Amino acid sequence: MQKALAIRLRVVAFDPGNRQFQQDLAYCYEGLANLYSLAGPPEKVIEYSDKAIPLLEGLLKADPTNEDDRAILGNTYTLKSKALGNPVTASLGDVAGAWDYLNKALPILERLADDYPADPEYQRNLGAVYNLASLLSGAKGDEKKSLELNEKAIDIDRRLVNLDPNNSLFKSELAIQTGNAGSTMLKLGDAKGAQEKFKQALAIYESMIAADPNDAATHRNAAVGYRNVGVAIGADDRVEAMKNFSKALDIFAGLAAKDSTNADFRRQWAYTYLALSRSQTKWSDAKSAVDSAQQGIKIEEALIATSPTNVTARTTLALLDRQLGDSHVALAARGKEEWRAAKDAYQKALDIYQDLKNKGTLGGADSSKPDELTKEIAKCDAALAK
Question: Rounded to whole angstroms, how far apart are CA atoms 67 and 262?
């Protein structure tokens, strides 16, 4: 792709006013932004999006009805929105900025879906934007709106799968949306409904792996599915929950070993340890909860060392630090050493949130975290003063 970009830059330099050359260059920039959109780092997505957007906006100003340019610009706005503030992939944590670009993408992609109702690609792109809007609504703490938008995405993807049942991309998108709906339902307190959604998504991923055992993206999504099922089962069946957590951890460990530069694989791996630690705390297995949290922290610290501006990763580390503190508190009957360890972990989490707040990248859903951690630290101080 970089070789193609170098050629296009030379061609444009020969004839800067040539529309076709400008279009080829813009599409190449969009392609590079897309390549970096999942694996990261988000800075690269933004770098190439920012190069593509002015070219595309200029092309559309001259020819507002050009179908291809509209589609590529809508996709580029979406890619930049994700890199700015998507809470589930590598991003800079700028939720407000993410909404700005999502609101630019949405009317373009809605109009294309209306203009070309038989084009599955335009329908799929619109579903992806609804999914992103759902995630950003969740990041603002509006879970009901998040579920509403997610159901819109599911409706689109279900229609596409019904039209082409063997299309792996459509099946993957449907599974992702279904899993996201489950996560939102879990936050809204509907554990049984969430478990059903998670199992539906996981069944799709397992069928896709059977058809193509070497697809890393499907293995990644299946691992998230196993983790989600483990969380939803919770204390109802600890053995079955643990089985699902173990499957998820094994998959993420294998994916990270094969592609050590993939930020998403490593963050998801760390997040699985976080989810496991939380469950172990609820199971009154605080010692194992400490071990799991520490494993996640080790993975996340290594990731942040390579991508210090990755707000999604830093937020996950803060969650892990807080969970480590909670786990030590659960062991506090052993003595003051546990309270000291808890205070240290809480302080590390607080430092991350304060830094994000100072930089304007603390998500709305996390706005209360600094105050919560300050209170937890005060409890530790009180226990240590006795």
Answer: 33
